[in-house]
Amino acid sequence: MLGKIWILFGPGSLLGALALLLYRAGYLIGHPVWLCGLILSIFLACGIIYLSFKEVLSHEKDFLHQNSQNQKESEDLRAILEEAHTLYREKVEKLEQTIATIEKEQKLHIEAKEKTLIDLQGSYEETKEESNTYKNQTHQFQISLEDALDQLRDSQQFQYIQQEVGKALPKNLPSQHRQLREQFDEKALILEQTRRRLFVIEGQLLALKKEQVTEKLAENSEEENIFQMVQVLIEENDLLEEEIAHLETLVAESLKSKREKKPKKKIDQMLEFQFEPTNSQ
C-alpha cells in the first residue's frame, strides 16, 4: 500500500513543482527561500520517483520468481500424479494377471477332479456289474446244490444206502458233494471280496463328491473376495482420476493469479489423502 502512495505521490509532486516553477518563476526568483524550497521539493519528488521505480522492479522480480516457483511446483505435482496413476495401473494389471492365473489353476484342478470322478464312476460300474454277475452265479450254484441235495435225498439210491447198514456208500457221492461244497465256498468267498471292494469304492466316491462340494464352496468364496478387491481398486482409480482433474484445475488457477499464496500445504494434504487407501491396502 505504501508503494502505491509513493508511485502516485512522486510524479504528482514533481509535476506540481514544475508547474509552480513555470507560472511563478518571477515571484520565486525574488524570494530565495521559496525557490530553495521548490528546488528541494523537486529533488524529493525525483527521489520518490526513483524509490517507486526501484520498488516496482523489486515487485516485478518477486512476481517472476513466484511465477517460476509455481511452474516448477506444478511440474513436480504433475510428475507425482502421473507416477501415482502409473502405480495404480500396474497394480490393476498385476491383479488381473493373478486372477487369470488363479482361474487357470482352478480350471485345471477341476478338470483333474472331474477326470478322477469319471474314472471312479467307471470302476464303480464295472465292480457293480461284476458283483451282480457273481451274485447271479452264486445264486445259481446255491439252487443247483439244493436241487442236487434234494435229488440225492429223494433218490432210491440214497434210501437204499440209508437202509443198507454195513454197505459202502457209492464212491462218487462224497466227491460230488465235496466238489459242490468247494464250488459254493469259492463263489461265496468271491462274493464277499466283491462286496468289500464295492463298499470301499462307494466310500471313495462319497468322499470325492464331498471334497468337490467343499472345493466349489471355497472357490466361490475366493472368487467373491477377488471380485471385491477388483471393485475396490476400480473405485480407488476413479477417485485418483477425479483428484488429478481437481489438482490440474488448482494449478491452472494458481498460474493465472499473481498474488495467490503457495498451495503447497493444500496439495500435500491432498496427496496424503490420495495415498491413504494404498497404504491401508
Strand content: under 5%
Kindly state the number of beta strands. 0
Shape: rod-shaped
N-to-C span:
52 Å
Radius of gyration: 55 Å
Biggest pleated sheet: none
Question: H/E series, N to C?
Answer: HHHHHH
Number of domain modules: 2
| Overall average residue pLDDT | 67
Would you kindly provide a written description of the structure presented here, covering whatever features stand out?
The two termini are 52 Å apart. The protein is built from six helices and no strands. α1 (2-23) runs antiparallel to α3 (32-154), α3 (32-154) packs antiparallel against α5 and α5 runs antiparallel to α6 (264-280). It has 281 residues and is mainly α. Helix content is 93%, strand content 0%. The chain has two domains: 1-55; 70-280.
Topology:
Elements: H1 2-23, H2 25-29, H3 32-154, H4 156-163, H5 172-256, H6 264-280
Label this structure with key terms:
2 domains; mainly alpha; 281 residues; rod-shaped
Structure in a nutshell:
With 281 residues, this protein is an all-alpha fold.
